[in-house]
Amino acid sequence: MKNNKYSHKVLIYSALLFNFAIAMIIGADSPLAQDVTDLVDNAGTSAASLPGIVTGGGYILATIFGSIGLVKLKAHVEAPTSVELKIPVINLLISGALLALPTMYDVFQNTINPVDGIGFREQDSNVLSEAGNALARIPFSMNAIFGNIGTSLSTLPGLATGVSYLLGIVAGIAALLKLKAHVETSGQVALKESVIRALISGAFLTIPFIFEVVFTTVADDGDTAGMGLGVMGANMLGLSSEGGACPVNLFSNSLGGVICRMWGGTLSFPLLVKSFAYICGIFVAIWGLLKVQEHVLKPDQVTVWEGVSRLLVAGALFALPTMMSVIYNTVAGFVPVHTNTGVLGSIISFFTGGPAAGGGGLDAMLGGLMADIFGPMTVLINWFGFIAGGVLIFIGITRLMKSAQEGARGPGGIGTIITFAVGGALIAFSPMITALTTSLFINPVTTVQSELIYTAGLEGDEIARIQAVVDAIIKFVYILGLISVMRGFFIMRKVAEGDSQASTMAGMTHMIGGAIAVNLGPMIVAVQNTLGITNIGLGFG
Fold first, then answer.
1. 81, 96, 195, 437: least buried by Cβ within 10 Å?
2. Which H or E run includes 168?
3. Where are the alpha helices (DSSP H) in 400-459?
């Protein structure tokens, strides 16, 4: 019997879902869907009449309740003790409210947002025009893929807003029906069930205002980085990467050119992450409002934190660039980006007119290789760190919705805390290298150009060749050091996550060993000073 009781509802909902799915794929007046944008547009077109249907249903209910109210009023007059006056009165009042649904919706909406014209700010569509110009030089790169994905998802915020509007309409009618039930059952249906539905209805009907509230709770209302890009934009232009933008021409037919194209071909990825976070923020905010309603209706089953945390997470996702800027500044502070004494082209000159021009040999090849890839590799490593750090911060924000039962990966777990810390260290990777360098060798600038101190019996050309090889090795080790330090950060996060295959010692070894490798020149000087062989070793200016 229990199954039969709900069988008609199952059939109705199944039919609605089936028709909605068909509408998304085919659309009422649209061709066969080609991408997500088409699916969303088709769904929106097919669902455009739903508010009218719901409102029409409200009018039908108003007619029914009005008729019941009149009948009950007649019964009350004829038998006052049998039918209480409140029964016809509440039926007539609810009938009037349902006939005046637009006015009731205005009441619910104004309760939440009494100021007209307040809506959620739009994403900045003109961010990083300089980066956009640079991207145009690399057609059909990964940037095109990222752009296509972003374009296909661009209509999802509108769909989410439409869904919330429908939820607001339904919640408004439900609030009136619950108020009627509260009066008729003499309090057996709690008044809070009507009140919370009315408030949620107002929140959904004015959802852009709710988005604005959760955003400004996290970011300052005048913060240009919140919906802009902040430190994200600076990194996209290469401004906070070591050595600035990639130093080799993007169309250079060399390994350095390939590396720079890897950097330039993914420059729009942060924009995709920002847009994805924006979309997630919209759905999480709607989810948070529903959780607040659940808490009021079922306080023993749903905690208030479940709703509040989702609203806070939504604000943080809307303001992801601000969050990244805050974490970057928290980690880096006033520590400058890292620099070194390497001069692009100082070794490649061996092929074009240096002291060993025309000599060829493995020494010249090695020198030319490092001259070509040294600058691009430092930029690419910093760029990878920034992307990885942004993703980790995104993960950390979403973890704030979890419960304490998640342990290390819960909102207050050590894994989540270290995820934010490592994310900050990675987006501020270059200043972190400066901090490690200064902690070990005082001088914040790494010296990678050597000078032979003992040159007895060597000619000028031979000295130049030896120094070129030594400098190439030092620069190669420098790059390995950057990778090692970054690897150390990832290992420390694994330790915090409870990964049994990672250890604190391994993470510290990678970071300290990497810092020494980055500063191999100063380390050689320190060893020479310790052993007292400064007169026959290498000097580093």
1. 81
2. helix 156-184
3. 414-427, 429-441
